[in-house]
Write a structure and sequence with these properties.
With about 325 residues, this protein is mainly beta. It is built from 5 helices and 20 strands. A hairpin with an 8-residue loop joins β19 and β20. It is globular and about 65 Å long. It starts with a strand and ends in a 7-residue tail after the last strand.
Length: about 325
């Protein structure tokens, strides 16, 4: 069964579809649009949650939710048709703070719209991710890890900075710079790292955020996660060289920099086969590295595409791809 749980202000306000081991038949209608991407990516944008059927008192006080912390959980809970997978795949989709909250009242319908931003809310003394100058002092021959950590720690003193980078990512020359925010900084590092380590399967430096932590990495996570055939919604598709997009039933157990193994195809390519379709289908196998995640759902919409997670992933076994 589809599952969501929305916790606001440390759990002082909760919306959920599952309680005490039971699915709630009368759970409120919820819509989700939650992109998870590195800051250099065009897909990095604020998450959106809409809750229908709330009381008038909550609409009138919607502004009181501004700058409150929020956690959104989602996926599936036990119940046909995904009972065997649900417990392992449901979990935290996004956390951050509510940068804007507003209520709507049209006819007999009342709803609450929440715009979610990464980081710690300013009301708690944390530095929201907003444009500010970041100064980078990357010396020739210096590994990027030390220079990047120093730049982000100075720019965002209230945040924890975790850096895990390839040891070969070394500046070929002095590369100082001042960047007007974390997005501009992330775009520079992504391009510079791809030019230094020029391999088609190299993902480049990725800067992302998880709560109060800024993560900087170009390394895959260690555990490869298998994508079962029954996990997939529709057909994986090549969207650019070495990169595929695929949809699964909504899940929280796969995130940025996770390696995943696609299921083996039933199609076998032979010398007699001349179809480009067969070539492409056969190539969508092996291990891929997740570069972006997008959760979106409409809780009471009936079709399978209405409670899903879409992934973009780059091939790590590039032989055979075109």
């Amino acid at each position: 069964m589809r599952y969501y749980r929305i916790e606001i202000d440390g759990g002082k306000t909760v919306f959920t579809s599952y309680l005490n081991g039971q699915n709630i038949r009368g759970a409120l209608q919820v819509e989700l649009d939650i992109p998870i991407a590195a800051f250099h990516s065009p897909g990095n944008a604020g998450a959106f949650v809409k809750v229908w059927g709330i009381p008038l008192s909550m609409i009138s006080q919607a502004k009181d939710l501004n700058f409150k912390t929020i956690k959104v959980y989602g996926g599936f809970k036990p119940g046909l048709p995904l009972a065997s997978l649900a417990a392992k795949q449901a979990g935290l989709l996004v956390q951050g703070y509510i940068s804007q909250s507003f209520g709507n009242w049209q006819g007999t319908d009342m709803s609450l719209d929440l715009i979610i931003s990464p980081g710690v809310p300013p009301a708690e003394g944390g530095p929201a991710i907003q444009p500010k100058n970041i100064s980078l002092n990357w010396k020739k021959g210096q590994n990027a890890s030390d220079a990047i950590k120093a730049a982000l720690t100075t720019g965002y003193p209230g945040m924890t900075v975790k850096v895990n980078l390839n040891g070969n990512l070394v500046a070929p020359e002095d590369s100082p710079g001042i960047y007007g925010g974390v997005k501009a900084f992330a775009e520079y590092l992504f391009g510079a790292s791809k030019s230094i380590i020029n391999r088609p399967d190299y993902q480049g430096v990725q800067i992302s955020m998880d709560g109060n932590t800024i993560n900087v990495t170009d390394q895959p996570n260690t555990k490869v996660k298998d994508i079962a055939f029954v996990d997939l919604i529709g057909q994986p598709t090549w969207i650019e060289p070495f990169t595929i997009a695929f949809k699964c039933a909504m899940r929280a157990d796969i995130t940025l920099s996770d390696p995943v193994r696609m299921p083996k195809t039933l199609i076998k390519n032979t010398a007699q086969a001349q179809s480009s379709l067969i070539n492409q289908s056969a190539a969508q196998q092996g291990t891929f590295l997740i570069t972006s995640v997008h959760h979106y759902g409409n809780f009471r919409q009936h079709d399978a595409y209405s409670w899903v997670t879409e992934f973009n992933a780059i091939a790590t076994n590039v032989q055979g791809t075109t």
